[in-house]
Amino acid sequence: MNDSKELRFKQIIEENKLRIEGICRYYSSNPEDRKDLYQEILVNIWKSLDKFRGDSAISTWIYRIAVNTSLSFAGKAYRNMNLNLEQTPQSLNILLDNDELELKQKKEQQLEALETELNLLSIIDKALISLVLEGLSMREIADIIGLTEPNVKVKIHRVKETLKKQLNSKA
């Protein structure tokens, strides 16, 4: 085994552990499945490490592997995949551009409604939204998903508008 590859791998994982865990949280609510997914992502990073050319930031490359692994992890079951939001108003702020949320109970209801609507999205829209929630730039998301930056901006804007309409119609 190549010691320098192993050291590089350990350093990359240490620096990106929270990113990888974040993606795993979005794609699985089951702690055991999250562990399996995390391990699968690590395996794919190890396998691809020699192929990383530095064309993008290492974090972008990690996200790309994590999202692609997550999407293929359960194969066809991911058509019914659910995104799992942490119970924080920050998710609402990011997706709905809603800075002033009223009461905790209303926030929780909105979050539940948002989660329901998110889980009706297509696979690609779920992937886009999970990366938005991670706080990535449009350029980084474009690099990860393999779309142009303008296309990503349009898709995310449309998803946000659809989410707003759906949630406002239920309010």
UniProtKB/TrEMBL annotation:
Q: Which species expresses this protein natively? A: Aquipluma nitroreducens
Q: Which GO terms describe its molecular function?
A: DNA binding; sigma factor activity
List this protein's GO terms for biological process: DNA-templated transcription initiation
Annotated protein name in UniProt: RNA polymerase ECF-type sigma factor
Ordered alphabetically, the record's keywords are: Coiled coil, Sigma factor, Transcription, Transcription regulation
Q: Which residues form a coiled coil?
A: 97-124
Domain RNA polymerase sigma-70 region, by residue range, is 13-75
Family note: Belongs to the sigma-70 factor family. ECF subfamily.
On whether Cell division is a keyword of this UniProt record, the answer is: no
Listed InterPro entries: RNA_pol_sigma-70-like (IPR039425), RNA_pol_sigma-70_dom (IPR014284), RNA_pol_sigma70_r2 (IPR007627), RNA_pol_sigma70_r4_t2 (IPR013249), RNA_pol_sigma_r2 (IPR013325), RNA_pol_sigma_r3/r4-like (IPR013324), WH-like_DNA-bd_sf (IPR036388)
List, alphabetically, the Gene3D superfamilies matched. Answer: 1.10.1740.10, Winged helix-like DNA-binding domain superfamily/Winged helix DNA-binding domain
**Which residue range or ranges hold the RNA polymerase sigma factor 70 region 4 type domain?**
112-163
